[in-house]
Amino acid sequence: MSKANIHKIKVCDCQILLHSRFENEQYILTLASSIIAQQSKPGQFVHLRVSDYLAMRRPISIMSVDSEKGTFDLLYKVVGKGTRQLAKQKVGDMLSIVGPIGNSFELTNKKLPLLIGGGVGMPPMIAFAQQIKNSDYKPFAILGSEVPFPFSAKLADNGKDYQGATHTMTELEDWGIECRLTSFQGFDGVFKGFVTDLAKVYLDSLTVDERMQVEVYACGPHSMLVTVANLIKEHDLPCQVSLEENMACAVGGCAGCVVEVKTEQGISMQRICVDGPVFDAYQVF
Prior knowledge:
8 helices, disordered N terminus
């Protein structure tokens, strides 16, 4: 993976243009910054100050961008004091944001990308899907959540049923990206199981030649990524994963977010924030 160019990280004061609330205290922030919108790549994140009362910033993955309008979107869920302060911010307020940070997913010559996002790991997959829309790639995206999805879902236009998975994220459908949803909550048209269970169903539906064109891209909880790693080893597939970690500085100074990475020279301790967050799955699992 390529290393982040730390000198390109900017500190921006971004105005909130839209702050939408969804079920189970999930929010989507739309912020103004032409620099972040134009420079960010799928897999990167920003480090933002959630309020004037908390100095410690929070890292949040970039979900989508509009480079023409100079805006970008963040999805987050209230899980603690910081995100609860963030949820109080209103349209028109300004947020101090550092970014974009980290390296990104690298597109390869594999024409059937399999995108797997679980929970807070969904935004990088949506960002990646946005990058490759209107291309000669034919991705399949799997998004999983154990709370109501923070976006509208609809019956997929192509009518394919992957063992009960018939519904897709509306925006991905509009981009021409095939997608299916997973959960154990019994939502209509949603596969009942883990994202990796549906990934197995999808891979089994492919021919041998088609599977040779698959590269897996994944982001989500650690336990999910471990299962993804087992899946790709079983099918001998290349895979890139985006790791999540609590961060203090998020620009490589504190080395508080290190992970063991297997290299040709042996084990290397690398920082998730700037050496990642995207790594080769075989090197970290």
